[in-house]
């Protein structure tokens, strides 16, 4: 089973509009963390936002917010007031607790390509 | 306050040659991770290292690939006798020392710009 599922290969959004990028995850571990990264065409991976499984509130970072629905195992990224510079690939990732003393692997989804239209 | 540094940014090798990819973690970070990104795919974990120790190499191909993080100097990902299928972007990430082993490590992994390997 896929640990991280991103079902939208590509998305378009009008400049200044909000957009939601979907991410669902699969884990039996009660303790985990969820991340979103942005990869522009230049190729670097830029950390955007983090949500812990025990966090009571949804994470927010500027124009980015994470719509965390634990029961549904979803961690959608919401970008408000889209800008042309938001055009990029977006990756959802999860870190699980893993076995005691073991490395807590980070698993990435296959990404969603977002294009912002002027 | 330099971020994670990787060099070279682009590397071209012919089949059968060796490729050496270097990664210098962020200042204060002692954990290094290597990932591979094939075209049109997400990142796949390869190996996790701390200084002079390989912690987890479960994502590394069994042959031709090796990694090290010496006491001094950058982490090196080495690919011997490269083949066309090794063409990919290789990313290094670093994070500071983690917390209690039972707690999810909330330390974010910060990525370098990647090395794009092309095998001719």
Structural topology:
The complex is a heterodimer of chains A (118) and B (120).
Chain A: E1 4-5, E2 10-14, E3 19-21, E4 24-25, E5 32-39, E6 46-52, E7 60-61, E8 64-69, E9 74-79, E10 88-96, E11 106-108, E12 112-117
Parallel strand pairs in A: 2-12
Antiparallel strand pairs in A: 1-4, 3-9, 5-6, 5-10, 7-8, 8-9, 10-11, 10-12
Chain B: E1 5-7, E2 10-13, E3 19-24, E4 31-37, E5 43-50, E6 53-56, E7 65-68, E8 75-79, E9 88-95, E10 110-111, E11 115-119
Parallel strand pairs in B: 2-11
Antiparallel strand pairs in B: 1-3, 3-8, 4-5, 4-9, 5-6, 7-8, 9-10, 9-11
- What's the β-strand tally of chain B? 11
Kindly state the percentage of residues in helix of chain B: under 10%
Largest interface, counted by CB within 8 Å of the partner chain's CB: A-B, 32 and 28 residues
Rounded Rg of chain A: 14 Å
- Computed over alpha carbons, the radius of gyration of chain B is 14 Å
Strand content of chain B is over 45%
Order of helices and strands of chain B: EEEEEEEEEEE
- What structural class should be given to the helix and strand makeup of chain A? mainly beta
- Poorly predicted parts of chain A: none
